[in-house]
Amino acid sequence: MNEYRISPRERMVLTAIIEIYIATGEPVSSQAVARYFDNKDGLSSATIRNVMALLDETGMLDQPHTSAGRLPTPKAFRYHVEQLQQSARAGVAATNVQLSQISDYRREQIEDSFTGVTSSQQYLERTSHVLALISSGLGVALASSTVQQVLEHIHFSRLATGRVLAVLVTKAGTVQDRVLTIDRELSYDDLEISARYLNENFRGWPLDKIRVEVARRIDAERAEYDMRLRSLDELCRQGALAAEFAGPTIYVEGMANLLAGELDRERLRQMLVALDAKQRLVELLNAYVDSRQHEVRVVVGLDEAMPAMQDLVLIGAPARFGAESMGTVAVIAPTRMQYQEIMQAVSYIAGLSERVLEAPPQ
User: Fold this and answer.
1) Domain 8-72 has CATH 1.10.10.10
2) Host H or E run for residue 89
């Protein structure tokens, strides 16, 4: 995992430097580290300087100016996260408790925030808000398309000549609406019959399978269904059940938190452009967070995927509803963050979906 295995003393000093940097945002001097330990661990200023020099050589620290203190590098933050995750796993093995050992205050704050949530849409919307609040970063929640694309109910309303409003409610509780342009005039009865046919025959079906089955039935029994299904065929062909209609939904909150950070204006502009293209966020979450895994994923160095996101970190985890993946919850924040607290919060909120939504037993 790391080419160089650092000693316990080096690990102690590195942890101190990271914690001081997270607290202050300033390069860390050997004197600051000495004050941090307050001579309790038998580390003199000379010893600390020597250890910092070794950490420099391993690529864990960077010195922006000759006379300045040191800054932790992305490699140092990755190592720090690995240590936190290893400690968490050791705690699970020893105590047989969940990974998300979160403070009572934070647990109460999170659970109060989810009061009244009854659908996956509400859960994901609330998640982005809560994670932005806790992390002072960007709270992100990506809905899984596999859950969203199951029909609960569809309704058609006539808006004007050749224009129909389709309102689709999915099994996961997501409501999507779309204005359809229709080549010929459809009466209120046409729309009502089409909606009733879909709701009575295909409630609980994935949308892509509904489109295939509707086409099959029309082809197989066109004579019998001609008058009744011509309207339905037109609505479907015009996109009432198009895949993108209920495609990946992403909830993002906390952009102002990043605006208050310490980025230069051009970097900030590039980052906001990248984040505003929500499809890029969808790709980012799908690339780094595996819905089959249960562990929190921490990615330091997002600039490898998106150059504008240098010095930002992704902390994400999959949320589940029964045996199905419901989506991904995540925080995107500067490297200067309280890693353990945010990792615990993401893990806890991801696991909260089962209880909040009362997932059925499998």
Assistant:
1) yes
2) helix 74-95
Nearest residue to 327 via CA among 298, 301, 357: 357
Residues 6+ apart with CB under 8 A from 28: 17, 20, 21, 69, 70, 71
Half-sphere exposure of 341 toward its Cβ, with a 13 Å CA cutoff?
Answer: 17
pLDDT tens figures, 70-115: 999 999 999 999 988 887 766 544 433 344 468 888 889 999 999 8
pTM above threshold 0.70: no
Cα 132 to Cα 139: distance, rounded to the nearest angstrom: 4
| C-alpha span between 172 and 153 (Å, rounded) | 11
DSSP state of 292: T
Q: Distance of CA 67 to CAs 20, 27, 29, 30, 178, Å?
A: 18, 10, 10, 12, 61
Spatial distance between the Cα atoms of 30 and 157, rounded to a whole number of angstroms: 70
Q: Give exposure, 260-278, as e/b (b: 16+ Cβ within 10 Å).
A: ebebeeebeebbeebbeee
* CATH topology for the 147-246 domain: Enolase-like; domain 1 (3.30.390)
For the domain spanning 98-144+248-356, the CATH number is 3.30.450.40
For the chain, what are the domain ranges? 8-72, 98-144+248-356, 147-246
Half-sphere exposure of 322 (CA within 13 A, CB side): 9
